[in-house]
Structure formats: C-alpha cells, structure tokens
Amino acid sequence: MPEKNLPGGARPRAVSRAARKSAAVGLSLAALAAGATTAAGPAAARPQTAAAAAPGCSAAYRIEQKLSSGTTWRMCWRYDSKAGLVLEDVSYQPKGETKPIKVLNSARLGQIHVPYDDGKHEWSDLTGQDFAQELQELQPGECPGGTIKTVKVPDGDPRHPNVKGLCTTTRSRGHAYRMHDFQSDKVYQQQGKDLLVYTVNQVGWYEYITEWRFQDDGTVHMNVGATGSLSWDDYNAQDGRGWPIGKGARDYSTSHSHNVFWRLDFGLDGSSRTKVEQYDSKVSAPTGRQEGPTAKTTRTKVTKEFAGDYRTYRWWRMVSAAGKNKDGHARSYELVPGPTTKYPGRSFTKHDLYVTEYNKCELFASHNPTCTSGHPNSVDKWAGGQALTHPVVWVNVGFHHIARDEDQQPMPVHWQGFSIAPRDVTAMNPLTPKDLAWQNGHWEWRS
Ligand SMILES: [Cu+2]
C-alpha cells in the first residue's frame, strides 16, 4: 500500500535519516562517556559559516575557471540546509573585457515539487525531504578532469558531516561558431568550452543531479537530472494511473510530475535594480500578392510583480540598470525556456515564470519555511503587483514522468531546465577572433 503524504512525513527509503540521527546520539554519548570533549564534535569541524562565504568568499568557497578560449567565470558557493548548492556573486569575463561583469547575486533551486497522478503522494523535496542533507559523495570518475570539493552539510549525518560532493570541471560542447570567410578563403571555427558545477542529492529512491553549466560565450544553463531508481513503493495496478513495468501487466509504476523551480537574483553590472522587459511578436497574414506576412515586435516594460506564461513569439529579458556594452547598448540577459509540461494542479505551479520583489525570507516557491507566520508561503502569492526595484526571477519547469521499461535499472537521467543567454553584454561575439574584430555593425569589405 502506498503511504499517505502526511505532513512532516518522509519519503520511504532504505535508510531513514531519523535512524541515522539516533545512531549519532548514541555515538556522542559514547564519546562523552569516554571522556572526549564536545569540541571534537561535528560543529567544531565546520570550516566556515555559510554567511561568511559570500560575497568576497574565502578560497575554499570560490570557484574561478579560466576556460581555454579566454573567458573566466567566477563565483562563490555555499551550501544551504534546504536548497543545497547556492551560487553567489557570479561574474563573467570574456577575453575582451578588462573587468568581470557581474551577472547574478544568487542562483539556487527554489523547490522540487513531486505530485503523483493518483493524488495520494505529493512531495516537496527541498523543504520536506532532506534533499540537502542527502548530498552524495562523488566518485572520482563522475567528475572527469575536475575537482571534487568537500561540503560541510548542515544538519547532515553527524557521522559524515563532510561530503566530497561538489564537482567543478570543464567540458567541450562542440562548435562555438564556424564561418567560411570567402574573401580570405579562411575557415574560422572554435570549439566551445564550458565550466560545469554540480552536486548529486538523493531523495527517496531518486537521485537528483543539480547542474550549472557556464559557457565561454556567456550563456548559463541550469538543469536538474533525475536518476537513481523508480520509487519501489509506488506501484498501483488498479487505478489506471501508471505504466506497466516488468513482465506482463501486473506492476504499474505510478505516473507523477517533477516540477522544478529555480530562483535567480540578477545583479547585472553590480546593481540589483534590474529592469524587466517582455517582448511579443505578432505575425500577420500575407498582405497582398507582392508582400509576405509581416512580424511586429513590441516591448512591454514590466514594472510590477507578475506571473508570466510562455507563448510562442514571447520572451523576457533582465536589463542592467548600471552598465552598457562598448556599442552603448544596455547589457541584459534573456530567459531561454526549456521544454516544460506545466502542472496546473497547484496555484504555485500554474505559471512558467514569476517575478517578485526581493524579500529575504522568500526562498522557496512553495512550502516556504522562512517567513514569519501570516506571510503567504508560495510564490504565486508573492507576485502581487508590488513595484519592482529588485526583481527576483522564479522559473518553473515541469516534467510529467510516465515510467517506461527502460527506466530500470538504474533509471537513465532525465533532464529538465532552462538557460539564460547574454543579449548585448558584449559588443560582439565574445569569442570573435582578432581578424574579425572590426566586423561590427554594418561593416564594409576592406580593400
Ligand atoms: Cu520521476
């Protein structure tokens, strides 16, 4: 029988955290009995407090990677007791820039909401299921060419408070560009390089890979990959809400959704007063025999908190209030959606995007535990029309998981996420080779 989703209930798994905790109490009592001092306990081993990590974090909490193409990404990391990995003070410095260009004050997961199709289970993995505590130790082989950093896990297993669980590495992504210059008959091509930063966190039978990918051209991809195992407890052959897994039609793995939220606090050029713009284009029918269909793009300046939905020909960007590129254009980052199945079952999952005015207690898109009582606890309630001076962006990406035979065993990683892409952050392609650096705007052939 599937368990009921009782408040405060934990997802069933092999070793419960409560069991580990009681084992640890036993250990520390034994240590006291042996005359050990409490200074030897896990609290004393804590290398740094989270608050001391950023901005201007110490070396242990700094990630700085100069990619072979000349672009440097810098950031601070810390580890939150619910959100897990948090990246702060993220900046980008392509080869032509003399200083780092600040992009984000903070980037983190905002919730992983997992409702089952039968209505009997509904999990809030970040705030209710010890996502952060179940940080997994990485094998050297799963951080190829990189470094695995040690993370002090808040409220983690006292027997293993430090987990080698944060991988930073680089990876090639194929062509960054290719161009055959027919005047010189030269082929310009470059292979793109990315910085990757990731952790693996176990929740129930699942393991979530939280991956941040920083490209040398300024694009950032954030993705969550679900792997591990299908939930052993969630098979229901009777109600028609699952898919037969295993021989015949006996065991039906219950279908469910993974609704992942990210919370991005932009700090473009060091200012939090980012402006938000929405663009919509309308394509007309052909106007006559000679003229084809036309498209007209309109910009809407968004000055108040809002809930937004993707639509074809619609996009948003966050515009710097402080900086311009060398062409005199305001720097901005565009939000690039990933594939999503928006889950309409809960008020906070009804929209693809929420932009809210910064409030330091609003950290999780649902079941937010950090505000005072009486403060609404989900992002849809915060997007109430207040004027935006320091916008915070919440992106909701849903995946409806109807299991398949191939999901066992282990389950292949299924990814969901989105990207942010620079728009006018630099005056040209940040990877432009020297020979082509003059080809900006309506250039003419050099004789
Ligand atoms: Cu799933």
From TrEMBL:
Matching InterPro entries: Cu_amine_oxidase, Cu_amine_oxidase_C, Cu_amine_oxidase_C_sf
Domain Copper amine oxidase catalytic: 59-430
Designated name of the protein: Amine oxidase
Source organism superkingdom: Bacteria
SUPFAM superfamilies named among the record's database cross-references: Amine oxidase catalytic domain
Segments for region (Disordered): 144-163, 278-298
The keyword Signal is assigned to this record: yes
